[in-house]
Amino acid sequence: MTRRDFARLSAAAPFAAALFAKINSKIDGVMLGAQTYSFRDRPLDECIAGMKEDGLGYAELFQGHVEPKNKDELKKWRADPPLDQFANVRKKFDDAGIEIYAFNYSFREDFSDQEIENGFKMAKAMGVNRITASSNVSTAKRIDPFAEKYQTVVAMHNHDSMKPNEFSTPKDWEDAMAGRSKYIKINLDIGHFTAAGFDPVEFLEQHHADIVTLHIKDRKKNHGPNTPFGEGDTNIKGVLQVLKTRKYLIPAMIEYEYGKPGMDTVAEVRKCFEYEKAALG
Q1: Is the pTM of the predicted complex or chain greater than 0.85?
Q2: CATH number at residue 42
Q3: What does residue 181 show for φ and ψ, rounded to 5 degrees?
């Protein structure tokens, strides 16, 4: 290598490092990111671009961003997913400086064992060892052997539906985790939890060791609607302050759901992010 070549490469190195630099969205020690469901109105590449524009460095990848939209094709796809394509999905996030912290793949009772196992294979193909899932309580017993086999945590996500066999109450997690391996855990949606009549701050303090990710949204109590951050009853600030003061390494993932047609998703997610940063101040 000539001196001129070395100088040219040296000059280019800072630019290359900046191009692929990890986005730092850890504020006061709290990991702030987004569930890519927040960007469900756009394809994966535009979702990644939106997260990068907003400055969010942690992603929980929504399965809808990698699955076919056609329902007739979906069952066949889940039975034999194109695993070789998932390394490219990971590369897209890496190139944008965003970490895929978890893969959201919602195992349901009607999934075959093959479809359940393929969820783990997809996660492994992306180099991810955490899955979040809006699953049935009873499905945990079928998921657990695969979680052990692939040494991948599965965190169960809650809603406020209060329906049998759906995650809504603290007891639902207790039932799902009872007698299971260390790999069955919790994905706490603090907005749904509030709407269902529970206190997310108290639950976080009591169960932080089993919580893998948090979904951050604002909702009214008594099964009320989603609202812009700060307009509902969810104690977002209290949750974030617990993460900050207790130094719990649990990412807080924005899940933007209050939007209406015509609203700018990227701008609204940025407002959510700014609210979180102010709440940590």
Answers
A1: yes
A2: 3.20.20.150
A3: -75, 180
